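Re-run with default settings, no changes from the original entry. Doing this only to confirm the output is reproducible before filing.
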Amino acid sequence: EGLGFGPREITIATQTKSDAEEYAAKHGSRARIIYAPGKCIADNRNTILRDISIGDRAMMFDDDIEALCKFIKPDRAHKYGQLVPITDRGEFDAAIDWMFATAERHNAHTFALSVVNNLLMLSGENERGPYRLNVKVSSGVMGIVRDETMFDPSFATKEDYDYTLRQIANGYNVVKFSRITARTKSHQEGGCFEVHRDREIETARLLVQ
């Protein structure tokens, strides 16, 4: 919001005709609304992938993402550093370009951002550098260079874990960035929350398989 993106730059994927109509009424002036039947987030992500061509780049944002933030290293006034929202379009575009270029340099078709605005954790992460390869990746923000890989709709949740594990199995790296984070409605400054549900247990079983 406020970065000046137009309808040719934003695509919203929906799973029902009523949702498509509702989003078109609310956001049709600033986004392109597409629709394909689906039951889970993996279906939604696949709708986006089918809408672009092999080799195209896409940034996927969950609908509770409020902002991308940049991590500023600790100083005397900020013991654990700072997380500052990126509000300038040029800076935003430069950050996205840097992440895609870094992924390409490391033979990665996929990257993700931390969605936990925990300054203590991020301060420690950044001591190891601005990103890491092939660590556990689950994110409300993913960058993808389209290849033949699709999301598996048998995963009601953790479809991003499965997708990135299959990328690694196919010989590609996966990059996790720590100096650019996503601020979401569901993760607060103190860290991440866990929700234990039957479907989470089923998803864990599928991932182990």
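The chain is about 35% helix and 25% strand. Helices lie at 17-27, 41-50, 89-105, 119-126, 159-169, 198-208.
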